[in-house]
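can u do me a favor
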């Protein structure tokens, strides 16, 4: 049975695909299409920026169309074509302003579905595993200092007796 020819999405030439789902005649065409879709023209970029600014100016009055849970466990609010993680949305409403890109919202009790304002805190740094390791190391250092002081006190008591 002869293979059906397809039209390449990159160069618009006919080609015989090696696999059924092939959409491009070569890697060159694949990357050409992929690169062009990733990089917008200045006009497109300006339009997207303006749309986003208009949306964010009215964020206090807008209610989400849909709320769902992402595969990573975070609850996400959908506002038409815009998606914002619910904990960021709640913090923005609480503060009455937009969050900067460098501002991160963390869950105090590490339960990512607990989005009560009492459980959220704003931080300038992105905490990950390193942060929790540093906290553990710092608490161990403090405990170590206390133990060393206790040993010195006990040694003094022994010398005095």
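np, heres the sequence
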């Amino acid at each position: 049975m002869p293979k059906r020819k397809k039209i390449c999405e990159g160069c618009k030439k006919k080609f015989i695909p090696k696999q059924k789902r092939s959409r491009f005649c070569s890697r060159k065409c694949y990357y050409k299409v992929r690169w062009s879709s990733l990089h917008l023209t200045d006009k497109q970029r300006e339009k997207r920026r303006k749309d986003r600014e208009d949306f964010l100016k009215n964020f206090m009055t807008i209610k989400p169309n849909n709320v769902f849970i992402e595969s990573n466990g975070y609850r996400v609010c959908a506002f038409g074509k815009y998606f914002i993680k619910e904990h960021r949305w709640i913090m923005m409403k609480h503060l009455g302003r937009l969050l900067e890109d460098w501002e991160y919202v963390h869950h105090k009790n590490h339960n990512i579905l607990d989005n009560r304002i009492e459980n959220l805190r704003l931080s300038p740094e992105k905490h990950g595993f390193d942060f929790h390791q540093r906290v553990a190391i710092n608490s161990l250092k403090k405990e170590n200092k206390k133990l060393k002081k206790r040993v010195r006190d006990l040694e003094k008591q022994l010398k005095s007796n």
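The beta strands are 6-7, 14-15, 66-69, 75-79, 82-85, 104-107, 120-123. hope that helps!!
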